[in-house]
Amino acid sequence: MVDDRNILPWQRHNWSLLSAYITQQRIPQALLITAGKGQGKRHLAEQFAQALLCANKRDDGYYCGQCHSCTLFHARTHPDFLTIIPEQTGKAIVIDQIRQLITKLGLKPQFENYRVVIIDPAEQMNTSAANAFLKCLEEPTERTVILLLAEQPGRLPATITSRCQKMPIKPDLQAAQAWLREKIPDQDVEVLLNMTRGAPLLARQYARDNIPELRNACFQNWLGVAEQRTDPVALAKEWQQLPDRLVLFWLTTWVIDLIKCHHQPQMASGLYNPDLSRDLQELAEKLDLKRLFSFYDLLLIDNKRIDTPLNKQLLFEELLIDWQQLNLR
Predict the structure, then answer these.
(1) Residue 73 domain-assigned (yes or no)
(2) Which of 105, 153, 255, 288 has CB 3.0 to 4.6 Å from 141, enough for a Cys bridge?
(3) What is the pLDDT of residues 25-40, one digit of tens each?
(4) What is the tens place of the pLDDT at every residue in 82-126?
(5) CATH number for the domain that contains residue 42
(6) How many domains are there within the chain?
(7) Global pTM?
(8) What is the CATH number of the domain that holds 312?
């Protein structure tokens, strides 16, 4: 039976598979857990890790929460629980980190149960690190389980993914909505889930950080540029102070929705931003589709450039000036 206190409701199917691994003693040597940001893959991996480490787990495979191993796990001091993450946010996992891991795995686990390694995000291993990591998969060590977490598993070498069992997390929409309504009862959970592409944990964080209000303000400013009411250069200066990747994502979804509205007028279903459908449909009627696709091409280029050391204000100036020109009639 799943413990509802700690298993996220949209992960119950995933947990039933993991608990079956434990109760049937068919523990995978390497498991690749895949999900988008904010869907809880790290949470699920840690629930599984604690169950593997627990010295007094229940008959259904769930951890007891009371034994010495569980106490150490909660304190983040369990010697048989290892995590590999980038040394700096957004940077790569490097070969030295993997070499240190290999050295640790050469020793026996300190407790009688399993040793668990979490690599998060696994796709951030650079080429040298990934090649070195293969040794962990090709020469598995005693009672060791490796959990690789990835948002973009396609970036992992096939030599790694082929040696892992796979577990995708696909949140059930109704379960996610019910959970969010309980956690943030004063928010429009449908809008939040649309904004986060169905990621409940990210949706809750967005609500706490007032991201819907920020997105709506950016959308109105974007409309202002289209209607020649807002100076694109002044707006670019404001936007470069905001989370640039998030703003660029919003711009991209608005343009995709405009293209959809152009082909399917009066249909809000299937849009990234159904709550903005009225404004988007009115705008789509005024725009030249060929020029809109050219603007979309520019957005795709900027999505690749946004993480490079370029001037973000100039990037937004170019986009907003082009957007203003696109709307001139």
Answers:
(1) yes
(2) 105
(3) 999 999 999 999 999 9
(4) 999 999 888 999 999 999 999 999 999 999 899 999 999 999 999
(5) 3.40.50.300
(6) 2
(7) 0.87
(8) 1.20.272.10
